[in-house]
TrEMBL record:
Gene Ontology annotations for the cellular component aspect, listed alphabetically: plasma membrane
Protein name per UniProt: Major facilitator superfamily domain-containing protein
Signal peptide as annotated in the record: none
InterPro entries: MFS_trans_sf
Transmembrane annotation, as ranges: 35-53, 65-84, 104-121, 142-159, 219-239, 277-301, 321-343, 375-392, 398-420, 453-472, 484-504
Length: 515
């Protein structure tokens, strides 16, 4: 049984016998089931990200990696996103598998994510099992570091086809006028995955679920892997993709020149609004990368500082500081989830608001003020302002700051994808009107890949900058980093959001107000 049916690209789809009982508007029919089916994968994938953002840094420190080396480890994700995901997008758009264009990549990526995540969590046991007993301690440590790094890189590359496939399915299957609603639900499931992952991370899992692993990271990785498998299975089983008619028989996925040529062609024809979104995302993610990876460490450092003062020089209690960091990220996740529920509803009210009433009552509160552009702009301003407030080194203030940034994260998880999805659907409809169906239908994953370059490339810059920052501050070995160092890093990162807000000002207001 399949819930969500593909949108017909032409009348030939019906002639070829594709089962389209609700072809006119597949999103609206069986809406509740479609929401679950199309977005379940985001819930599972975000759980993986919460492990990387919330627990992996502390885990790598426990293995003896220094701060600068950990920052370099996080280059894997941005590099994979910038170089590998666009190539996967070209490959996916030209895929002629019987499973469809997206599901083969989601399935393969899920398997590799689970294997690499479990390998990372159980690295010590695996390295010990295959190492020589006569090996020195230093050699064993080097082997452990190399193995963990390999697993991290495989994990980050495996995430790309899953992420791209899930995003592309929304554009493939949901009509233009409902792209912002579908992407709003994707954001809600993503933010729900944040809450699930961070809440699991704050529980003493080895105590309650010892069969999942002897350490917190092992148990958490096992739970997240099970969740990912279940969620992507729901999406892949119930989604029904039509066999692509866009396949180019001359295209070979191993030909890098073909992929670069296709991406360059797509880049040149991007709508101006999509190009503006990509520029805004570039500056925004210069700031998001340090926040996502170091906000919990910043709160933990504040907690250690309070504990040291309160205990008159007694060494800090790392367990309490770790729980404080997890609590802060749970506040962030909850805040962003609530905003993800509320903001689309505000937009829906705004789109139904009578313009004539607005003119007659301009002095009153006007819901028409809440457009996608303005909400995203406000989110970036709040993000920048909150990051600059991190120098107020009180843990209560830190919780408020992290919670406020949840608003910004909710807008970033929803609005850019809604705008781009709408632009792509417009391109597809224009191509159909001019009888150029292949040009429209084959662009979805390529545009998503280009957008991901605008997200991933600034993370590469940010990761290198963070590594250099810690090295200059003298934090080049495993050990404690003080709250002042983290506050300075976050404040510098927040300035990038100001540039993002400036770019967002150039987005057209009217094109994305009523969707």
């Amino acid at each position: 049984m399949h819930f969500l049916q593909p949108i017909p690209e032409s009348s030939s789809d019906l002639e070829e016998g594709v089962d389209l009982p609700h072809a006119h508007n597949p999103w609206s029919c069986n809406r509740g089931q479609n929401i679950l089916v199309l977005n379940a994968g985001f819930l599972g994938l975000q759980g993986v990200f919460t492990v990387l953002f919330g627990s992996a840094t502390a885990y790598l420190k426990s293995l003896g990696l220094g701060g600068w080396l950990i920052s370099l480890s996080w280059l894997a994700g941005p590099i994979a996103g910038a170089l590998f995901q666009p190539y996967v997008g070209v490959w996916s758009d030209n895929c002629s598998s019987s499973l469809g264009k997206r599901r083969p990549f989601i399935i393969a990526g899920t398997v590799l994510i689970i294997l690499s995540l479990i390998g990372t969590a159980r690295a010590k046991q695996i390295v010990t099992l295959f190492s020589l007993s006569s090996g020195s301690t230093s050699e064993s440590h080097i082997g452990l570091v190399i193995f963990v790094e390999i697993c991290i890189w495989i994990l980050n590359f495996a995430i790309q086809p899953v992420q791209l496939g899930l995003r592309s399915l929304i554009v493939d299957l949901v009509p233009q006028e409902q792209q912002h609603e579908a992407n709003a639900w994707a954001a809600r499931f993503t933010l729900g995955g944040n809450i699930l992952g961070y809440c699991l991370g704050s529980v003493d899992l080895p105590r309650h679920l010892p069969f999942l692993g002897r350490t917190q990271f092992q148990a958490l990785s096992s739970l997240v892997s099970i969740n990912l498998l279940l969620c992507t299975s729901i999406t892949c089983y119930f989604i029904k993709e039509q066999k692509s008619g866009v396949h180019d028989s001359s295209y070979h996925p191993t030909t890098a020149r073909s992929g670069i040529r296709d991406l360059w062609k797509t880049l040149r024809t991007l709508p101006s609004s999509t190009r503006t979104v990509c520029f805004a995302q570039f500056f925004s993610w210069l700031g998001w990368f340090p926040f996502l990876f170091y906000a919990s460490s910043y709160v933990g450092a504040l907690k250690r500082q309070d504990l040291s003062i309160g205990s008159q020089g007694v060494s800090p209690r790392w367990e309490e500081s770790a729980r404080a960091g997890s609590l802060a990220m749970s506040v962030f996740a909850l805040s962003s989830f609530v905003m993800g529920l509320v903001l689309p509803q505000v937009m829906e009210r705004s789109s139904r608001f009578e313009s004539s009433l607005s003119l007659k009552s301009s002095w009153r509160w006007n819901p028409e003020l809440f457009t996608l552009r303005r909400i995203w702009l406000a989110g970036q301003v709040i993000f920048a302002g909150s990051m600059l407030l991190t120098f107020f080194k009180r843990i209560s203030v830190a919780y408020i700051i992290v919670g406020a940034i949840g608003f910004s994260w909710a807008t970033s998880a929803w609005i850019p994808y809604a705008i781009i999805g709408t632009d792509i659907q417009r391109q597809i409809q224009q191509a159909e009107c001019t009888e150029m169906n292949d040009e429209g239908a084959g662009v979805v994953a390529k545009v998503m890949g280009i957008h991901n370059i605008s997200i991933a490339s600034p993370q590469i810059i940010s990761a290198l900058a963070c590594s250099l920052f810690f090295w200059l501050r003298g934090n080049d070995h495993a050990g404690e980093v003080d709250a002042t160092t983290y506050a300075l890093l976050l404040s510098i990162a927040g300035s990038a959001a100001i540039a993002s807000a400036w770019v967002i000002r150039d987005l057209p207001e009217e094109s994305y107000h009523q969707m």
